[in-house]
């Protein structure tokens, strides 16, 4: 996750086995960017997806 205007990314969760994830404690009226990586059963990590912007309404 990234919080613009910051440029660093940080990991929200690891070893998520479902097809969805709820991000806890997002702040109202803040912009967030997300990207996803996948790990294969062999342990190989994919490249991250293109960033997806998200804005949480009040």
UniProtKB/TrEMBL annotation:
Instruction: Kindly give the InterPro entries that the UniProt entry links to this protein.
Output: FN3_dom (IPR003961), FN3_sf (IPR036116), Ig-like_fold (IPR013783)
> Which stretches make up the Fibronectin type-III domain?
1-58
Q: Enumerate the Gene3D superfamilies for this protein.
A: Immunoglobulins (2.60.40.10)
Q: What is this protein called?
A: Titin
Q: Which organism is it from?
A: Elysia marginata
Q: What is the lineage of its organism?
A: Eukaryota, Metazoa, Spiralia, Lophotrochozoa, Mollusca
